């Protein structure tokens, strides 16, 4: 619990955590509290500017932008979170295996990761979306594949750093199985950098998903997504800037929260900063 | 004498603010005459390094420094602004650091450092036209401190030189300044003994030539005794006592000083020989023509770490592997335990060939071959309680019932003279000495036939070393197990071992009973190594005789 | 013990260092070639494995079997997969990337790519330049004033920067600097060959939109690395020799921070190129990104494949260039 108490003292991290909690709460229960559904069209209020009735205004179909942003946020966040979860779990496993066994296991796995890593992230995701279709599962898979090599590399590098540590050697000398050593000795001790990377990755995944949906190669209408709403909004950007602006701000707030939280976690796990405290 | 070169009164250094403020120096008083060497002795956390850094204003901005007085040659340093202070630092005051490799800019050649330092010293002195011929002067200085092929070395990058050569280069840089005050912070701690001896001699010569005052920070009693005129003993941010070197050893006042000296004396006296245990029994481990080559990786070429080593490890004996860094002693220790796979030769354990056994095949044998590591902090999973680490070892040894595990854990802790509550702590909550005790307990928990101890006390403070060594020895006798004791410290080797194996560049140079190796070494290299013992406590050149004798020219402080 | 043995390496002049660097370059080119080969194969076979038929995509769902067969024969889609790949690869090395199936039907994709490449390279380099300059200023200021107001402001700017995706940044810039202040055009592209100043003017907003989030990432990296090098013993040693602070910062701290900083810059090229695609679309820049999006919507597999490979080549070239700069900056890599 000492780690948690230290985190509580980290102002950046706490602000980030607060924003993330508010965002999570908003997208989870927000839509239920708003009187309009995301698909409810009000032809009396087409492109209405922000008002008390519609805090974020309405779009060209008279749909409430706040309601759409919250639901779109839920979709975007769920997809990004799932993608990073898959990438982190799979990537850590590959990385630990590589870093512990070295030799040809390492050679083969890491060459595959290098290959994945050589493609620009957005291009790779875009290509996969076009080829395999726009379902949510495919978006998750595409984003996960883009981030897989990053997690694998971090897990491998940190494993390499600690694999010669005396406590790992001591475990080997006890005659314990490699799988047990990887699970109980290595994994707990490399989880911190992976967690930090996951928070950074989540932010990038949100950007990636929003970018795909923004150019129309991600979540397909009528399902709302943050990128999709922004894309709608740019068509009447000069007449009704609030659609684009509000959805853009929503993305920024979510990203800000995640990035601040990530910075807080990084401060917490950086041994140099820890020494100072 | 007239004005002291340096007069410090009530120096305090603190970090942090408010409730988080922590004071690390609590009012230090020191003074120093021109031409005098003042040793500051202390263990980790004593504040000995902080004192020199505060003097040269090298502490980070977060440090708060306060003093009653800090006079350099009569000038109050604390009144000087940055510009005025800058005219002293790097001109009349210079510092030499513990890590010679880290002290050089890795992206620049050695000669570049000389050029920058000389140029800046000339500007600071003012008036003098830059001579421009920095290179020739650098070469001359480097020759003076004994750097071979100085004309070539001046164009090398720091990573191309050894630690000893870089420390010489750093001394040459200081020499270029001709300062009045030199602060040396553990300047030989990272160096091998033979090199350390050369560098210390050099220090004394340089100081003599410049007639500078020198503050020499060290944790090594013997070094301080041989090099310094007076010695200040520090602990936890306070100076416990200051005395002339000889008097400090003859008549220490403070209990802590007495403890330090007693520990050093104990290790300096050879233990009573006990014959050669296990001589008439079949050997536990037979090493035949063992070699090990590390394959090339990146810019590093292939490296032959072990070369044709033949050696028996007898039952119940303590055998010492002695050598300097790069001699292959640690590699040999790890190869014995099959943490490395030998490239050639054979390795027999109880007559069974384990040279190329797979990890899976080794698993049943592993338990019998244990190790205690150099770094106590890294020896335990930082996320496990000490008792859980012990329980893990017991489980690996086949103990299954949780009640028995609890009982055995408690017994093990007691055996290594720790309390049960130590088991409830995390590694970072224990001191180095305590961790090393738990590490011994963990090794013993597996009931091994052989324990390899790799520099197991070299990272511990001097005052706890003897205790841990005695524990090793008691447990070895009690369990009748064999022990391979890897160390660079000849005193530790003599104190612990029945037989000594001297390694040099991966080869076995000499092997024999401890007494024989120390009394009549058969190789020149061993003789060179043993000569460094002359400067240790009780050695021929210990104290004022050391490093060229300081008695006559010593400036009396009082 | 090398002190006793006297084994000391020979000094090396700068010209000696080109040898190892050239050798390293050769090695990197070779491994880059292998990655390219594996990459093209991966792209080719993934496209083949994907559901969906390029002929159907190009001709529409109502196409007759005869029309489809004719289409397949025309574009060589009826040959075995391996043969198709080898033919594609052979063409690739001769600059022939096949014919467009849909975007500009029948037109050689190589020509299309050559038309579009300069705009992408120009905007990309401009963005990279802006990101590096911005981050050097921001990161250095923050590290040197660690914990002070300047640091707080700089790190806050950086956190806001990484929280602004490039497509959203584009509209903020358009809204502020184009529609609001009328300083820069909101749309369009001028080729640098026609007017360099005009090109820079036109490309400023898209380049800045791509650069802003990257600058934030770079600045955070530089700050962290610089704080690390500032705490190295050689910095303390340099101060103890009285070397002036600006000199120590420049030649000790920043100099040694460059290699890790550039390494991160090289890795980030993956994300920069992603930004290029979206931002080209927003600002109407006729680049590879726009071409690839067109290809994606038209399901033009030859165009998609060609664009992906071109992006792969760009990443490889940038990474090799960064590695070379790092090798030249780091004597440990080139001098033994």
TrEMBL record, chain A:
<feature type="transmembrane region" description="Helical">
    <location>
        <begin position="194"/>
        <end position="219"/>
    </location>
</feature>
<dbReference type="InterPro" id="IPR035906">
    <property type="entry name" value="MetI-like_sf"/>
</dbReference>
<feature type="transmembrane region" description="Helical">
    <location>
        <begin position="112"/>
        <end position="131"/>
    </location>
</feature>
<keyword id="KW-0812">Transmembrane</keyword>
<dbReference type="GO" id="GO:0055085">
    <property type="term" value="P:transmembrane transport"/>
</dbReference>
<comment type="similarity">
    <text>Belongs to the binding-protein-dependent transport system permease family.</text>
</comment>
<dbReference type="InterPro" id="IPR000515">
    <property type="entry name" value="MetI-like"/>
</dbReference>
<feature type="transmembrane region" description="Helical">
    <location>
        <begin position="137"/>
        <end position="155"/>
    </location>
</feature>
<feature type="transmembrane region" description="Helical">
    <location>
        <begin position="77"/>
        <end position="100"/>
    </location>
</feature>
<keyword id="KW-0472">Membrane</keyword>
<dbReference type="InterPro" id="IPR025966">
    <property type="entry name" value="OppC_N"/>
</dbReference>
<dbReference type="GO" id="GO:0005886">
    <property type="term" value="C:plasma membrane"/>
</dbReference>
<feature type="domain" description="ABC transmembrane type-1">
    <location>
        <begin position="73"/>
        <end position="262"/>
    </location>
</feature>
<dbReference type="Pfam" id="PF12911">
    <property type="entry name" value="OppC_N"/>
</dbReference>
<keyword id="KW-1003">Cell membrane</keyword>
TrEMBL record, chain B:
<feature type="domain" description="ABC transporter">
    <location>
        <begin position="8"/>
        <end position="261"/>
    </location>
</feature>
<dbReference type="GO" id="GO:0055085">
    <property type="term" value="P:transmembrane transport"/>
</dbReference>
<dbReference type="Pfam" id="PF08352">
    <property type="entry name" value="oligo_HPY"/>
</dbReference>
<dbReference type="InterPro" id="IPR050319">
    <property type="entry name" value="ABC_transp_ATP-bind"/>
</dbReference>
<keyword id="KW-0547">Nucleotide-binding</keyword>
<keyword id="KW-0813">Transport</keyword>
<comment type="similarity">
    <text>Belongs to the ABC transporter superfamily.</text>
</comment>
<dbReference type="Pfam" id="PF00005">
    <property type="entry name" value="ABC_tran"/>
</dbReference>
<protein>
    <submittedName>
        <fullName>Peptide/nickel transport system ATP-binding protein</fullName>
    </submittedName>
</protein>
<dbReference type="InterPro" id="IPR027417">
    <property type="entry name" value="P-loop_NTPase"/>
</dbReference>
<dbReference type="InterPro" id="IPR003439">
    <property type="entry name" value="ABC_transporter-like_ATP-bd"/>
</dbReference>
<dbReference type="GO" id="GO:0005886">
    <property type="term" value="C:plasma membrane"/>
</dbReference>
<keyword id="KW-0067">ATP-binding</keyword>
<dbReference type="GO" id="GO:0015833">
    <property type="term" value="P:peptide transport"/>
</dbReference>
<dbReference type="GO" id="GO:0005524">
    <property type="term" value="F:ATP binding"/>
</dbReference>
UniProtKB/TrEMBL annotation, chain C:
<dbReference type="GO" id="GO:0005886">
    <property type="term" value="C:plasma membrane"/>
</dbReference>
<feature type="transmembrane region" description="Helical">
    <location>
        <begin position="261"/>
        <end position="283"/>
    </location>
</feature>
<comment type="similarity">
    <text>Belongs to the binding-protein-dependent transport system permease family.</text>
</comment>
<protein>
    <submittedName>
        <fullName>Peptide/nickel transport system permease protein</fullName>
    </submittedName>
</protein>
<keyword id="KW-1003">Cell membrane</keyword>
<feature type="domain" description="ABC transmembrane type-1">
    <location>
        <begin position="117"/>
        <end position="322"/>
    </location>
</feature>
<keyword id="KW-0472">Membrane</keyword>
<dbReference type="Pfam" id="PF19300">
    <property type="entry name" value="BPD_transp_1_N"/>
</dbReference>
<dbReference type="InterPro" id="IPR045621">
    <property type="entry name" value="BPD_transp_1_N"/>
</dbReference>
<feature type="transmembrane region" description="Helical">
    <location>
        <begin position="303"/>
        <end position="329"/>
    </location>
</feature>
<feature type="transmembrane region" description="Helical">
    <location>
        <begin position="196"/>
        <end position="219"/>
    </location>
</feature>
<dbReference type="GO" id="GO:0055085">
    <property type="term" value="P:transmembrane transport"/>
</dbReference>
<feature type="transmembrane region" description="Helical">
    <location>
        <begin position="21"/>
        <end position="47"/>
    </location>
</feature>
<keyword id="KW-1133">Transmembrane helix</keyword>
<dbReference type="Pfam" id="PF00528">
    <property type="entry name" value="BPD_transp_1"/>
</dbReference>
